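QUALITY CONTROL LOG
STEP: pairwise intake check
CHECKER ROLE: data steward
CRITERIA: each record must contain a sequence immediately followed by its structure tokens, with no blank fields

ENTRY 1 OF 2
RESULT FIELD BELOW
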Amino acid sequence: MSTSDDTLLQYVGQIVPRSFQHGLITVSYVVSCVGAILTLELLNRRTSRNGLANYLLLVSAAVSMGGISIWCMHFTGNRAIVLAHNEPELRIVYSSGFSALSFFAPVIVLLATFVAIGASYKVSWWRLCCGGVLAGTSISGMHYLGNLSINNYDCVYNAVYVTGAAIIAIFDSTVALSLFFVFRASWRNTWWKRAISAFVLAGAVSGMHWVAAVGTQYRLVHLNERDKISQSQDLRVAASLSIIAVFFIIASIVYESWLTKRRENKAQQIVLGVAVFDKSGRILVSPDGLLPSEKITDTYVERTQGDIFSISHPLFHWMFQVSRSWNSVNGMIDGMINHLAHLPKGSRDGKIRLIADDGQPIENYDAIFRELFCVAAASLADKLKEQLADVGILWDDILATGTNQLPQKLDQGIVDCTLEEGTYGQFRGRLENGIMRQHEYGRGSLMFLVRHLEHAHDVNRLEAAGFRFAEIHQVCGIIGSRMQIKTRDLKGKLTNMATFAEGSAVMRPGVHLGFFGVKAQVGSFGFDIVVKKGTRNLLPTMPIPIERLESWQMEIIRHFDRMNVGAIFHLLDELKKLSPREVLFASQMYDALQALRAWIDDPIVDDAVMTSKVVQVPCRAQGGSSSAKFCTMIALCIMMPIHVSASSPRCEFIPLNFFKVHQMAYKDSSQLAAFARYVHRELSPIANSAPVKPPGGTYQQAGRAIFSHDRLGFLRHLGRSKTNNYDVMGNNYPNQIQSSRGSSSHDSDHASSTIKLCNQDSQYRERLGSDAMSDRTGSYQPTSLAGLGGIMVSQEIQVDISQIDDPGRKLSVPSKAVTSTDRVTMVMRVFVRSIIGCMMRDAHVERKSLTRTPFSSTMSSRLARGLRRIALPTTIAAVGGGALLYTYRPRNIPGFEGPAVPPPIYGADGTFKLPRFPKVKSREEQIAELRKSNGEEEEYDMLVIGGGATGAGVALDAVTRGLKVAVVERDDFSSGTSSKSTKLVHGGVRYLEKAVWNLDYSQYQLVKEALKERKYFLQTAPHLSSWLPIMLPLDKWWKAPYYWAGTKFYDFLAGSEGIESSYFLTRSKALDAFPMLKQTDLVGALVYYDGAHNDSRMNVSIAMTAAIYGATVLNHAEVTGLIKNDKGRLSGAQVKDLIPERNGKKSEPITVKAKCIVNCTGPFTDSIRKLDDQDCKEIVAPASGVHVILPGYYSPSNMGLIDPSTSDGRVIFFLPWQGNTIAGTTDEPTQISPNPLPDEKSIQWILNEVSHYLSPDISVRRGDVLAAWAGIRPLVKDPKAKNTQSLVRNHLVDISDSGLVTCAGGKWTTYRQMAEDCVDAAVKEFNLPTKPFVNAPRVSGTAFVDDGAILNGTCQTHNVRLVGAHGFSKTLFINLIQHFGVETEVAKHLTESYGDRAWTVAAMCKPTDLRFPARGERISRLYPFVDGEIRYAITNEYAQTAVDILARRTRLAFLNAQAALECLPKIIDIMSQELKWDRTRQEREWKDTVAFLQSMGLPEPMLSATRAQVEKGKLDFSSSLEYKMYSRHDKPPVAEE
């Protein structure tokens, strides 16, 4: 051993001194920056969490960050650590295994980081914080994992430095990711901002590394005797990876520069773009914020003076129409590409030459221009991964792009060829004369295909394809600057495109008064017409409120012929003195004319004259109709002076010829079919004129079609269905027709790939008014069979085509519809070339000698083989049997148990013994109990404000714990949100999906808690709640496993609280279970189970159960103030009874003393909190949810439906309820009001979503809406949270400084858990004396034990059965029919609404004096509500108003608002008898109830109905404007005289 080795040995077991190389420190930071820049660039390109490209970007970003920015930086930085004097024997040696592990570990963690952050463009701060923590953890973890790979040193760490390094890593990572994603979400993510984020992210890596390195000491274990120089090897790997990253960054910069230059070139060309909008109006863009576009051609070649490419040009008209009928050219795209590939190219740039050598446009220029447009549209469809038919329709305007300078290269190929031929002078002259002049030199033209996406899955698919959706205001600046769009209001243009794409700019059916104003164009042959600004297909019109014009109305209009507006007004005034119907029509015409003149706001309208000839204009079809409809328009016409401009801000001028095209290009127009035939006859011969050579790959770049010919093309015939060859043969049609050039007045009768269909095409071309194209026919050369070999399979298809009389050919044929039949035989040849190769393999068989084996060994081997054979079948059988046993095991399903007590029986004397139910105190007794509380001995333990689900639940929970409780409600029990739910008792499958995808544990807890409460619902109130199977239709097969896994997970979470397991239905079974479903796009369905209930009846039952247990329960009593003691603590409240004021009497205030005040007022929570503290912050964020009620025939009676992905991504339910169908809900911010009105927009949205999955045979009409309501969901914010703006996921229990307990939030399903948490908090805060409940009332009315509740002072509401639940059974209605003689439907309704209290309700029904039914007079002939329910509600449920009966006791107002109005007189009469109402009170009840029914969707005309009109049945509003909206059936036709 040398002296130097002896010297180094002294370091063994000791700390080796270290220093740092500053140059390598800088290099390590640069390496980290390179990796961070590449990472953020890759993340910036990610557009969705779906799609293969997005997965690759995600993995690449994780590898770039973990492998380059962290791993490479670590080993580069470690190379900068100098130990001792940098002797080779003291250099660090790494373990290859740990080094590899330290590479992949951070990659995996970062992969989880980027998945957690997500690809959404909405900034989620908690996701960013989680991502920052994970990223910082991966940085720190890799550092210490990398240090573990050191073989010859033990690392000694300083805890302070370790903590500081971790903090730096997490903090800087969070800041960097936050900057990046905030910039990205706001579309301000320019390259230098990404670079700043990358520098900060690299600072997190380097800062953590060097802080940790400074606090790390190295204790030598052994010398590096072999000098493995492992540091150098790792450094080389790191350098290689860094160089690769630099290469990718440089390539990205070069690519962006090339794209920028390409965009500048495109701005000087004619370009076709696509603008796709989603439901919320966001626009599809690339990750750079640009719209997808394709070049059509360099420039439009003008052939005459003024031949400018604009919206008045016939070529634009052709494009406008073909975009509405893409199917007419879809089959010719390949032929067009082939034809363009064989056109002459320029000698230098290889572009298609559109100018011949003589300076004139090439032959078939118009057709070639059309082909270029179609090919560009097909290229855009490929970019979007769409079919050509779905790429969109052409917008009705052209945007100018580029600059105004002269082009540097107009067409270099043209200049070259003219100079070579010596015709430069001719070329220059034509250029100066404007033959080739563009309307503005250097200006390009940008056209747009627009499309509106209805479904969220289309948005997700396009995002997965690499596109983003952004708000228009965020990207309009980027689009305008980078695409060089020269318009002042690009945002307005894009917004107009979005409106245009929706296709809503169509006139409504009926009669309209329109303004038809034209003027001659300046400097051109043509006319301009006045249209509505932004909707160029509509004239300025005003509707006349009539459906159609009668003959007598036409006679009146003829009197207005050629009269100006002033004369028309004068004559209309005269008509007002005639018969009533003429007076009505004159008034309608007068109003429409005056409104039209005011709308146009231009004095030139007064000079217009009316024409007596009415016109039919396309209009919006009725809901569910696919055929085109027309409406009637009476026109005011005027020829304006040529100098007039559109002074009205609502109008603009457009070319008249384009307006004509616009009128023919509406949806389902019969003109489009003729246009399709015309397009096929025009383009097919030209597209097929080139030799057929199927290209291997096709793409369009810089205005030229580039083809990659496949030298082994014959192999591509194998398995390809798109390259079939067709020969057309017939008696009168030759196989090949030579190309010829004829005049525009003669059309080709035959073509190799077309057959003349009818003579309508030529007429259609004349109507278009465009230049007729020369006749061009192309010969089709079938592919030669020589040299292909293989097997030929021929299939002969015979098609009989009737030849129709063609005047253009001047055939002398009889006037029959069919004169002769030509048999056209199409022979499809499919070539199959099979190459069969045989591979021979020599088999060498070696003979082996057989040796004898012992008998025991032989038996063991045989036994082992036998066990192996039966192991797999036995395992499968065991697993399958266990699964079957678990699925079909005996279970006590909640809600299906028998009655808790036996049914009533006959006594010994033969009389029927009805149950003797305990009576609730009268309302006067309850008020007296409240007044007693003013004394200290009678003080309440708890006063609950609010009688909704939460307030009633708190009262029931508290009173069953032995507390003295009172609950007061300003209106009625369940008068607010609690009666306006979706009627579901569910855990929430949508919450479960969010919990899984967002990794949200709070959402998971919410679902778990709700599923547990769902079971208690069905146990404690089986008569009011039931199980409901809900169907989830599937339109794609790949969705089946996804939703199947989701529903099975939902079943698993339910556990013992569940019912039957979810199951799959085939398409036929799904249609059998839900016949109303749309059959198209249906592959099957999944069915899962949830609960449904009668929400307001449930609420009333909870309150009445609390009253029976001793709680003081009072409705229509308002809390006007809160009382505080000397210490500022709440000690009571001032309560005002509102019923005396309704009777015209004065109400005395009631002082209620209580130890605890609980605020359970739902949306009105803040109003009570402000009574306690005026300065408190509001915590309620109200959201409105609209529901509609449809007739029962919209859904099966025992199957609901859920649409998990509506057009805007929300969930909508479609459920049977009380014999009708409920659909909803929406979720929009709103203002708090007692009875919010449902807005028409939300109703129409629900109906539109419903129509998407119902059969087209079912017309979803507005008139089918029987009722509609808006409920306010009180979403709450925690006032004590640090972030007071964030909403509470579940519910909130808050106690103020003065002692006000607030319980808010949550949902109906979890009302019991909310009440339990609230009472627990109150008992703990105020030391309330809970105690066992002795002498509990026999709620069942029998001497038997009511339920399993042990009232020992703890919460037992999960066992306390509600009023009516004890004696209820599924067959109780039969006993009711047999004893009282009520109708079957009525008996079922009574038992399912009142449970065993149906005995009392039936006894209160008056006899009918009929044989059957013997009792029960219906209050509405459409529904099973009877008179006994009104009397029972008054005496046993504290009903005080007619609204209480209609809305919360019988639910009639929620089921049918018009039926509720019709039975209102009978209800007021019965209540007047029971409650002794006078005439004034009855009239007030009528007005208040009608006003309430407006919030239930009562039609506007019925709000003014009087009681006398309703009683006489004279509610007729068929003459009103709302008839068509609210009528449930078509208007009867008028009999002709």
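ENTRY 2 OF 2
RESULT FIELD BELOW
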Amino acid sequence: MARLADYFVLVAFGPHPRGSGEGQGQILQRFPEKDWEDNPFPQGIELFCQPSGWQLCPERNPPTFFVAVLTDINSERHYCACLTFWEPVEPTQEGPCAQDGAERDEEADEGGPGALPAPTPGPPGQLFAPKTLVLVSRLDHVENSLGLIYTIHVEGLNVGLENVVGNLLTCVIPLAGGSQRTISLGAGDRQVIQTPLSDSLPISRCSVALLFRQLGITNVLSLFCAALTEHKVLFLSRSYQRLSDACRGLLALLFPLRYSFTYVPILPAQLLEVLSTPTPFIIGVNAAFQAEAQELLDVIVADLDGGTVTVPECVHIPPLPEPLQSQTHSILSMVLDPELELADLAFPPPTTSISSLKMQDKELRAVFLRLFAQLLQGYRWCLHTVRVHPEPVIRFHKAAFLGQRGLVEDDFLMKVLEGMAFAGFVSERGVPYRPTDLFDELVAHEVVRMRADENHPQRVLRHVKELAEQLYKNENPYPAVAMHKVQRPGEASHLRRAPRPFPRLDEGMVQWIVDQAAAKMQGAPPAVKAEKRTTVPSGPPMTAIVERSGGLHGNSARRLEVVRNCISYVFEGKMLEAKKLLPAVLRALKGRAARRCLAQELRLHAQQSRAVLDHQQFDFVVRMMNCCLQDCTSLDEHGIAAALLPLVTAFCRKLSPGVTQFAYSCVQEHVVWSTPQFWEAMFYGDVQTHIRALYLEAAEDRDPFSAGEAPVQDERSALDVASEQRRLWPTLSREKQQELVQKEESTVFSQAIHYANRMSYLLLPLDSSKSRLLRERPGLGELESASNSLVTNSMAGSVAESYDTESGFEDAETCDVAGAVVRFINRFVDKVCTESGVTSDHLKGLHVMVPDIVQMHIETLEAVHRESKRLPPIQKPKLLRPRLLPGEECVLDGLRVYLLPDGREEGAGGPGGGPALLPAEGAVFLTTYRVIFTGMPTDPLVGEQVVVRSFPVAALTKEKRISVQTPVDQQLLQDGLQLRSCTFQLLKMAFDEEVGSDSAELFRKQLHKLRYPPDIRGTFALTLGSAHTPGRPPRATKDKGPSFRTLSRNLVKNAKKTIGRQYVTRKKYNPPSWEHRGQPPPEDQEDEISVSEELEPSTLTPSSALKPSDRMTMSSLVERACCRDYQRLGLGTLSSSLSRAKSEPFRISPVNRMYAICRSYPGLLIVPQSVQDNALQRVSRCYRQNRFPVVCWRSGRSKAVLLRSGGLHGKGVVGLFKAQNAPSPGQSQADSSSLEQEKYLQAVVSSMPRYADASGRNTLSGFSSAHMGSHAPSPRARVTTLSNPMAASASRRTAPRGKWGSVRASGRSGGLSTDVGSRLAGVGPPQANGAPADPGFLRPQRAALYIIGDKAQLKGVRPDPLQQWELVPIEVFEARQVKASFKKLLKACVPGCPATEPGPASFLRSLEDSEWLIQIHKLLQVSVLVVELLDSGSSVLVSLEDGWDITTQVVSLVQLLSDPFYRTLEGFRLLVEKEWLSFGHRFSHRGAHTLAGQSSGFTPVFLQFLDCVHQIHLQFPMEFEFSPFYLKFLGYHHVSRRFRTFLLDSDYERIELGLLYEEKGDRRAPQACRSVWEYVERLSKRTPVFYNYMYAPEDAEVLRPYSNVSNLKVWDFYTEETLAEGPPYDWELAQGPPEPPEEERPDGGAPQSRRRVVWPCYDSRPRAQPDAISRLLEEMQRLETELGRPPERWKDAWDRVKAAQRLEGRPDGRGTPGSLLVSSVPHHRRSLGVYLQEGPVGSTLSLSLDSDQSSGSSVSSSRQAARRSTSTLYSQFQTAESENRSYEGTLYKKGAFMKPWKARWFVLDKTKHQLRYYDHRADTECKGVIDLAEVEAVAPGTPAMGAPKTVDEKAFFDVKTTRRVYNFCAQDVPSAQQWVDQIQSCLSDA
């Protein structure tokens, strides 16, 4: 029972004590004057009556009413109903005490209105003061009474106010129970008071519905989540009543949780600073103070009047977990807007009835009640009963609850469970025996129904309505309410002049009424309504929630079966079986069900007293436990760690008599053991089990399997037992009660001791001497350092602080493991014992005990540690020795390592499927040549596959130490090494524990020594096969005659002297510093052969009498590759230098034979005939590194030459151009050399025949005459010089010399920009498919020589129109950019660690970041530009950087694209020898071959060139004689240092070391190949691995590859891997010829089967599945061997087949499909290498074999057929007669730039909608097509240059297409008109 009202207070306006304009409230009277004992008078009522402040008012306002809420210190809420009305102020009222004021009021009352001593007679200046009646009550329904009191006062009813107030204060009503009381306050009124049925359910009236109406669904939901997750919520409104309603509504939504933070629905203005409190709150404030609210940064502001909710940026409100969020949202919208569902119906039903506001309010609350029931379903199964008597202590197992719900990651639920409201919920509702309410019923009995209704909105709505009925009934139990009768004041009564102010009441009388009532109450027996207490139903357990981890590790019975079998094998001692199953088990243990199953099985075995294991069993059990635990989070939400905890102290092995090692010492490295919450939950779970056992008569009870779940058995749960005990408790005697309390307390105490032991087991490491372990233990170290990263609950901070204050933070060195563990356990003991009511004596005893427990355990562990070290090591697999090359020696024998996965997914069984080959267990070997890993996969399911990964020591680019987990023992961090190589291999190794750190260090040092030998002589290629130690060459014996070695030494000496003499005066050239090269030969060898010392400077000029030694040198030089190539190109022979015919434009000059002018150039150079050798010396000074321009290639057709040189020095050409018009009178040395240089360039220009003929004028005479008039397709006539870019699109495809590698026939619209450089740098209009912009417009008249130079170098150079050369400045990348880009490429292809986001996207992203393909694109672009220039008859000088990196790349690519010879095996070798080796690309420097080069790092310039060749190979697979494997082979071996070919930086250095000529000289012993070319040659004889079967070149073909990045592919050299044998480039190691047939397989496989599994990433696919031709050749060899004939070489067989094929095709002209030769394949199809022909015989797929035949009509016609454009593909084999020809005739068509007009036969084809043209009328071969679909306009034209002279100018017309403009000219005006009309009509028809 409760009083209707506790206090009645009258508060009036009083002036402010400090005289400010504001007033303040004064309490005039309060009743009763003494405080009630059970309910003290609340403070601060005067502030809350007028929340906006006490102010006077100029007019009389109507009375206002609202209810404020005050919370007292016991968090009881007091409702203050405030009714305010206004009374006139008396002028004299200055501020006397309240007493006087009251008396004056009474005087005025008596005197009536006239007695007011107002000086002004009228009301104009009248002010009104507020006065408030306040009723303080603990009940939330009291408004009627205040209204009654006010009515009596205003209407002057004849009723004593004292009686009414007295009755009000003495009226007592029940709090709940649904009774209906009718009361009267003695004023002739009758009031009905209904009490709710249950006081636990909140009463909301309409407040929730109003809240939704004001803010909307989304806003209310976010406020709901904000309040639940403890954010600050502030309501704003101009109405106080609305503020209190909104707050009440929000609180009603939170039921069954109670809001326990600051709750002030109406906050007075004076208290606004409360808003900056740090704690959460729900507060309402008048909207007038909105400005103050905006300054708050972390407060969510809900504006009720505006309907908005503002969430600050820094606040994150976690939303409800899906699907609850969306379900709640939709059901709320159905309740609020029922018509929404019907809005789209064609025939909506007649209006639906909308619930009344009160009913809607209950429906909305019902939605939230259901939401809580869904959120908290099954919560009672996660309660731990810690104590039953004297009061229940209940704890909630949060982790288990989250784990079962699968919501561990959910932010919202996590915060709710950690919040204060939920803690209150557990302590209030966790109690097992108490009255129950609607929520208890719902969460226990309706869960299943809610789950079933989920997808049926109508059923959900029905359920909501049922719940709403119950809620409504709770508030309004009696629908037929008896009549209220409460008098109200009349309308506008407040405006009437009040008869008198509110009277002062008689305290004595009120007090007398109160006392009377109190006396009566004492006599009456207390009307206590007995509460109906019951056992709270628990509802269904949570097992219904499906495991959320999804399909991958679904709870499949098969997996559990595997786990069970494996465990039974372990315990039955069937170790081999168990070993087979183990990997599957470890995989299965990723799933929760399998982990549970493991724990159950192990427990069964432990119970059958099988806990003592042998060593192998112990290892297996520990591995499985570790695998289970590694996925446990620190919370252990699935109870796995909890289930294993009893087992880790059960399983053990005997190490020696008296020493036993338990499993816990091997499973300590898991974060869960150092988490306090885990131990608390475990402790409470165990206590609950024991308390339950205490009260159950039958105490034989198994452990509950998981701490989170009470066992689901027939027996009652712990909560049921506790409930029963609570029911019996009042009936027990006092002694019995004491006894039970004592038993429970000692149970908890004994568990605490048990847990102190358990914790010491799992926290103390096996080797406790290592204090460093402390920091590594995840939780302890962090608790030590007072961080609470893992301690998530609210207790964390306090724990850390208390620890710090206790001991003062000790330093890491001094704090020992034992101390840390003791502190951790003590903190735990403190917390759980105080929570579970252990007596303080017991607690003290525990504190004394803990250090002893820890100390004892440490002593036990010492013995265990000592003995475990003596265990015999587990039998490791024996080391597999790698196969070595002849001459390769082992430097370090195998170190046991694990090879770990490195981010390439294939090896680890990635997307390609296949088994997980990595991690593998084996050894790493270091040889003089390679680093090799051999081993076997650790996963035994993979089988006995040998995994090999190796790379040449020389290819190592980065080595870093790592610390990694070994695959066998996941807990152990082992030292490891990560070695990355530029052959795209990565060895990520963890050393086995048996490998000491010194062995690992030795391995690193040796590796480093081999990678960077101090001298180049120390490399593998040079030490191979030599008996002496590297470092000092052996002294040569003198009797051998002048061997090549002495000859080369002699050469070097001469060179040195010459250099010495020449460079005394001038320091311009700095030869590369010699420390890079290794030392020159020792001094004592200088004079072994006498050489005349007097070398006059004249040796630099060609002399007719070469000395003998020089002659020998010359003959050696002539044998070099360059010379052979120069002779092939017709660039002169050496003899011509002595008696040379002047007709030859170029000559071979021996000026550099002593390497005197330029050390990095070859000995023989091609220079213009007219330049004397002594002039070359001066020219060379203008160029970097003295690399002056020399010719390296000449086009056989246009006779243009390609020159190369280093970049210019500052003076050189640039200066020459800048100052050429004003030569100063006194020319300096530099100017003279510049002049020399100009002369030199002039000489180059004049050496070109057509420019020489024209005596230097820049015409193209004699060049275009051949094109005039002839219609016959002669070879000259098809030469298309680069012309205006429009014509080029057709002509370029028809020219036999050039072809573009693409299937698209898109026109290439070049821009008319003159600056090629800017175009290459991406400024000009790019081509449609990456072709460089057309160089036809470099200048209107083409220059004779283009100099391609670096943009930076050629700044400010003005090309002069009279000059015969032109500069093309381009932007190139530097070597360091190549280096950086390569590093990133390496990282992309071989990442080193698994990608964060697996899949192709991350690889492509990192590939793009590397910019490698962009560099390839630039190289190809520049090269194609140069090819175009050369092809059009201009010479090109490539003069970039020092002339040995990018220059070499460009020059080589240009020759490869222009000259088919270089696309053969022999030609490519010559190209590399000439351009890369002889012209001094610095292989040793770029490959960082020696110690000196270590700092410069690896720069793969040559690899980049090979990548470019690979891109061209892809686009033109039929143009290359060598296969892609050949390029990979060179890419691998140019860094491997296996061969001597790619060592050192120039020919000069190779001669100095005696390498250059010994290849021919030292053939006495059969040696390993020293040259890579020799090796390729030998290997090619045995196997066609370097040969490309699709090789079918077109004559004189110039290739023009597309270079757009989109056309480039990543080279598979970077990504492929063969783990079966390591890289396949050392052919001897790769098991020679392909696999033997199945019968002979040495591995004992079943011989009858011819099938074998080919694994991605393991087997070499080309070897396992050779292509068809290789297979046939193999088969032939095998059959020949069987027949006993010596097998024929593959090449001879292949050549025979080709010859036969050719003969077969000859006799008949167009007959058999076999005669279709490759050259008839349209080239864009050819670039794909396969050709599908529709022939008369039927469809055959013909892969033809060769094309070097030119006789027979079929060939010529088919060759022409290859030129057809793509738009006519479908008519390709039709004859001319069958074509549709709507209109035809002869027209002149303007050719490409600098080409004449030509008469062609044009055919207008309306059917195919195209205009075709032919060479002449009888020609069947279409020369070009204009697609009419692309024609935009046909317009009259004007005669252009070179047009036929005789024709009228009106006969010209232009056809404009989207791509270009075609210029035509008819024979006369009428036929021109006819053509225009025909084309127009064609267009209009379309």
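INTAKE CHECK: passed for both entries
DESCRIPTIVE NOTE, ENTRY 2: The chain has a mean pLDDT of 75.
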